[in-house]
Amino acid sequence: MTDTTVSGAVSSASPVRETAFATTAAQRIAVLQRYRRIAMVGLSGNAYRPSHFAAIYMLAEGYRVIPVNPRERTILGQQSYPSLQALPEPVEIVDIFREPKAVPGVVEEAIAIGAKVIWMQLGVIHLAAAQRARDAGLEVVMDACVKIEHARFFGGLSTLGLNTGVISARRLTRA
């Protein structure tokens, strides 16, 4: 692991909270309200993978989700592209479901295609790549799930059986 890559931690204990890349709820809400076209880099055709679940949810919420995975031909009935450069249409959010060491290359491609936001999923943290994106004028969200954040802000927690009304690791006490 390099000094610009942090691995693993998620939630309120995320190491991102202690960096210049911590985002507020208002910033994440604004991104989700402003932009509707998402390239999901590393989107899997395997229905049991978190990326697949996130894509289904975002599609159901009316977002345009474009798969970017060179190992897949189609995902969720849509053509998958081998890279961001191969996309036939512009995207605004580049949502990264890849290991941290792959992030710098994805960021360079996102800058080249004119994306507006780099969104690194839970556990995907790369500070140097985030700084490069920010220096190029992109917004950066790191160590956060686009599906979880959307559900949290816009009432989608009931989707697929999650209807707690509360995001917490604490168990509710029963009366």
List the topology elements.
Elements: E1 5-7, H1 25-34, E2 37-41, H2 50-60, E3 64-68, E4 74-75, E5 78-79, E6 93-96, H3 103-113, E7 117-120, E8 124-126, H4 127-135, E9 139-141, H5 146-154
Parallel strand pairs: 2-3, 2-6, 6-7, 7-9
Antiparallel strand pairs: 1-8, 4-5
Helix pairs in contact: 1-5, 2-5, 3-4
Provide an overview of this structure.
It contains five helices and nine strands. Helix 2 packs parallel to helix 5 (146-154). The chain is α/β, with parallel strands linked by helices. A five-stranded parallel β-sheet has the order 3-2-6-7-9, with helices on both faces. It is 29% helix and 18% strand.
Quick structural gist:
Helices cover 29% and strands 18% of the residues. It has 5 helices and 9 strands.
Fill in the keyword field for this structure.
175 residues; 5-stranded parallel beta sheet; two-stranded antiparallel ribbon; Rossmann fold; alpha/beta; 5 helices; 29% helix
What is the number of helical segments per DSSP (H or I, 4+ residues)? Answer: 5
Q: Which band does the percent of strand residues land in?
A: 15-25%
Radius of gyration: 16 Å
Number of domains: 1
Q: Output the CATH class name.
A: Alpha Beta
Order of helices and strands: EHEHEEEEHEEHEH
What is the makeup of the main sheet?
Answer: 5 strands, parallel
The CATH topology is Rossmann fold
CATH superfamily: NAD(P)-binding Rossmann-like Domain
